[in-house]
Write a structure and sequence with these properties.
Oligomer: single chain
Number of domains: 1
Helix content: 40-55%
Largest sheet: 3 strands, antiparallel
Number of strands: 3
Number of helices: 3
Strand content: 15-25%
Strand order of the largest sheet: 1-2-3
Order of helices and strands: HHEEHE
Length: 134
């Protein structure tokens, strides 16, 4: 009868039930902030690369795509670890450039075992920015 009313192990039991949920939420916030940070970096850098492509538009320049990719690569290399895939599309009739579209794809590596078990080893992000030449 005395064992049924004992309260000695209540705190440990409550901690064992709450701790995994708390850690999952905490690690989810940390990983989510890393994913959001990578998305913001890609959004800004694709916008800057597209702007770079149309700011000094040289109509009919065959190197424009290569130059925009090189500009994007040098900017992103120091900000994100790993490989970022970039696609640059120059719209126009071959003589006059009307727009530059930059698309970047990146896989954000997850760090904690809890989020890796729930979401996989990485989360893919794809960002597209377009600037018109006016």
């Amino acid at each position: 009868m005395r064992l049924l009313r004992a309260k000695d192990g209540d705190t440990v039991t409550e901690l064992a039930l709450i701790l995994p949920v708390f850690l999952l939420i905490l690690f989810g916030i940390v990983e989510g902030s890393q994913i959001l940070g990578a998305w913001v970096i890609l959004t800004n850098e694709t916008r800057q690369a597209a702007r770079y492509g149309v700011a000094g538009v040289r109509d009919g320049d065959s190197n424009l795509t290569t130059e925009v990719q090189a500009q994007f690569g040098t900017d992103v290399k120091s900000l994100l670890p790993g490989a970022v895939t970039t696609t640059v599309t120059v719209a126009g009739d071959g003589i006059e450039t009307t727009a530059v579209t930059v698309t970047a794809t990146y896989s954000v590596p997850l760090q904690t075992p809890f989020t890796q078990a729930a979401m996989g080893a990485s989360v893919p992000i794809q960002v597209t920015s377009t600037m018109r030449a006016e």
